[in-house]
Amino acid sequence: MTLSALLGAVDPPQLLPAREQMAFTLGFHIILVPFGVAFTFMMLICQYRGLRRGDQQALLLAQRWSKVAAVLFAVGAVSGTVLTFELGLLWPGLMGKYGSAFGFPFAIEGLFFFLEAIFMAIYIYGWKRLPPWPHFFTGVVVTLSGVGGTASVIAANSWMNQPAGIVVKNGRVVDVIPSKVFFNGAFWWEMVHMLLAAYIVAGFMVAGVYAWDLLKGRRDHYHRLGFLVPFTVAAIAMPLQFLVGDTIARQVFDREPAKFAAIEMVPTTGTHVPEILGGVYIDGEVRYGIPLPGVASILAGFRPSTPIKGLDAIPPDVRPDDAVVSVVHLAFDVMVGTASLLLLLALWFAWLWWRRREVPTNPWFLRSAAVAGLVSLLSLESGWVVTEVGRQPWTVVGLLLTRDAVATQGNLWPLFATVLAIYFCVGAGALFVLRTMRRRWAEEGTDAVAVPYGPGPAPAMNGRTSGADDA
Length: 471
Description:
mainly alpha; two-stranded antiparallel sheet; 6% strand; transmembrane helix
């Protein structure tokens, strides 16, 4: 039993605003992560095509995308810096007790961040100033740095789910093994899951912009390529994500039984546990859900007789409350439901491409593609809710309760309001800049714009309209 339970502790008043602020800032920042990790990769695909095939439109697309990436990187730097300060201001119990372990992945992330910032500046400045292939490889460093930074943050997050690599005596960390902290038991699957999610979100969101253009009749090579590259990346990642997600679910079943019980909304331990679609958890009972008999047990252990530990097996002082269970379960349903829709869209795209070998022109497909970015974003956010809320009431599972990690002095609501105002201004400013850039590029067109590696305007594409040219 924890010290808080022995003393009859209650949640401090600072807990609610601290959790709300952390949830908001994480939810905002996670939107930008895919663009630092995956959007730059798609930019490099266009640049590589342009260099290898002499495709000036692909080079122009890569150059314009690099400017978008720079804007979003700047916004991400602001929101990420705020998150860093929040860890110390809002959660002194976490940093004070386990900062020597938890802070190690963030130190690595800082190195990747500076590396990414330096090479992002070189890459943006290097258009027309560096030889083509050396310039391309500066972009490769940008992409790899983004992957490394994301992996570092995932290492810190996964360590909170499955802490490892520390020796604790008398409530204090006396030894840290950095490699085991970083490569903890949950790291690899969580990292792959997040990276695939980044490619899916960035791919569908960027493709959605060009799907809208295609619906408006802008079907030149530039717009077809702008749709085809990111959508193909997202479509390839979707089935892989389902395989990884299915494996992670069984990892959670084996190593985080309380989270799994909340995800599946399992009140009591037993076998032949049904999968509940929808529903809420009230007074220890499942209400308003649609049960699929035995499916949860089959998903956990491939047979209906697989026993699943219920919430009744969790000690009362560390058992997630009814609201947490309902939120985690519904978020999981949303994540799986939206991902299933995106998988169907990816299969539809594969079918259309297999039949005609060209960018689909079916209006209903393009309408679906245009909204797929928002659907993927909803899937990403709900997945983070499962990960973060599903850990409650723990901040570090088995070691530190959230109520013991939060700051216990001062009124945090004014700080939360200040952060909201800052993020609103930053977000609105970013949208304004991006819309201004898009409007200017639409006015410039594509054929009369100076190409990145040439002295004159891009040559006309000589009527290239076949889908095979975009492959």
